[in-house]
Amino acid sequence: METIMIIFPAIDIKDGKCVRLVKGDFNQITAYEKSPFDQAKIYLQHGFTNIHIVDLDGALQGKSSNSNIVKKILNNLKLKIQIGGGIRTIDDIDNWIKNGVDKVIMGTAAVENIDLLKTACQKFKNKIAIALDVKDGFIFLSGWKKQTNISAANFIKKIENFGVSRIIYTDINKDGTKKGPNIKDTIELSSKVKIPFIISGGISSIDDVKKIKTINSSNIEGIIIGKSIYDGDIKIAELAKQI
Fold it and tell me: How many C-beta atoms surround the C-beta of residue 188 within 10 A?
């Protein structure tokens, strides 16, 4: 039986352009012709209502440098946007919510400052998502540059009752490789808590999407797809049929 699954096409922005990385490596970067705004418009025209945007400059520098591009999308296109990258303070979150984003994604700041995460969840009810970038069970931070000795499972248990709206789980070993997502680990981890999970990283074909939709887990809320769309492995029109 298929479950209803939110499909989030991804837009990663660096230096104002749409880009994709392989395994988070900034030396393995591909820039694409379409601007982030044009790409978002294409998604909307195909019936997608949720978009996942990452400000890669923000993730690296700790502050947003592409916010005008994102604001243009927010102001002109009727899309529900979840945004991440360089969101480190309550003011950053407040600013994005005032500009109309649906969810604000905290990554590094959430893991390094658990009190900040707790405060954010209390202040902005059902608006805070967490990005957990995981390799071999451990969390990586700062655009995957920094390895921690924090296990993803332990961290999730710790924040279980904060009011986090969703967890975006990326297996770094899979991301950008188009070799299929790590469904097994994601389901295993998601079954430990009641927070909805979004699968991210490695989705390579429409078959991957169909397979995820048949997962009998009430906790998998959606999937994020990036590189496979840009490279043409998954056609947008074909993906739209899975909405």
Answer: 11
